[in-house]
Amino acid sequence: MIYIIDALFHVRRELERDVTGRAPRRIINDMLATQAGDVNIWCWDGAGAKKRRQAIFPAYKSKRLPHPDNIWPMVNLLREGLAFTPSVQITVPTYEADDVIATIVRAYPVTNKHIRSQDRDLSQLFDGHTSADFTTELPPDDVRLYKTLVGDASDNIPGVKLFGQKGWAQLTPQTKHQLKAAFNGGDARVVAMTAEQLPTAATRNWLGEVSNAVEALKMWEIVGLYTIPEDEMTRHMVVGQKNQAKANALLEQYLL
Hints:
- The structure is a single chain.
- The chain is of the alpha/beta class.
- The chain folds into two domains: 2-138 and 225-253, Rossmann fold, CATH 3.40.50.1010; 140-223, no CATH class.
- 46% of the residues lie in helices and 10% in strands.
- It contains 13 helices and six strands.
- The chain has a six-stranded mixed beta sheet.
- Helix 2 (23-32) packs antiparallel against helix 13.
- The two termini are 29 Å apart.
């Protein structure tokens, strides 16, 4: 089994759950105890990770609060400690952890994989060999279209004006197929023409404007997950070497 870990999310969750302050030691010990045949891959945001999408859609994640300052010493400690475990860490500049995760999933289509995350965006990667720490009723193939049309407040993506959950519920499978084809084609004029398939006059009128279709195409682009070139993944990969003594010595420096 390949365990693909949304690293910063996982660290924050474990630190918040553990009131003893010993979460770093527990995480490192868990990685040292990795079973034969299993692989743990820690996926981190690269430097400037949001800028790639913000260059397309400037409002992307613009309202997110920064992570608390006190998390970073623990993150740095864990990244150093993971190098003494049989874990893999990947941090690719200008790419988000989600893109690293997506690249790994696509590289191993018939290998069993489990994503350690609660990020619903990643459900677009689900298939017969890929699961996560959560389940969803939304089919994987609909996730990208759903986020484009309905929006996602957590990422500051507005979606199509006045569409919402009610509009989504009224879409037929045929209409979804036509909309996906139009967005995949990347031509705003075609997207605008496809707006005739939407369920209400307000949404048809909004998306029927080419300038609005351009904005919708931008949303379609940023809610998708990029595949990172293999050479970049390899260049920014750190493969740990199991060394219990060095891991313990590092943790003991911090009284852990």
